[in-house]
């Protein structure tokens, strides 16, 4: 999906991030997006944490897609993290999560938001894609897998 390529530069991909909780993951992603996308780390954290309070964004099979709405009319921003160790995400299958795709969408981008979530849910439903993401050590290949160019 071309849209994934536009919102997920290689600088927004972290492989084997050492985090021990959902909270710490959101803090680290906030730092990454502050550095590489110019977003305020506190806004990223609050946006993701607030959405998670409404219900888990864990999909199952070790995957989560935390997402939220940012203020203003900025761009859609994404990040992908593979955690070093699986973390609890209150997923429906009660399995911990290692593959995390973070999506931050401005309030005015509802259509894109749903299109991206649909694409990601489809990609992550494929065991071969999840396995490849778990075993890949190259951010370019991870990006291509998420864009469906494998």
TrEMBL record:
Pfam families: PTS_EIIA_2 (PF00359). GO terms for biological process: phosphoenolpyruvate-dependent sugar phosphotransferase system. Residues 6-149 form the PTS EIIA type-2 domain. PROSITE patterns: PTS_EIIA_TYPE_2, PTS_EIIA_TYPE_2_HIS. It comes from the Bacteria. InterPro entries: PTrfase/Anion_transptr, PTS_EIIA_type-2_dom, PTS_Nitro_regul, PTS_SugarTrans_NitroReg. GO terms for molecular function: protein kinase activator activity; protein-N(PI)-phosphohistidine-sugar phosphotransferase activity. PANTHER family: NITROGEN REGULATORY PROTEIN, PTS SYSTEM FRUCTOSE-LIKE EIIA COMPONENT-RELATED. NCBIfam families: nitro_reg_IIA (TIGR01419). This is PTS IIA-like nitrogen-regulatory protein PtsN.
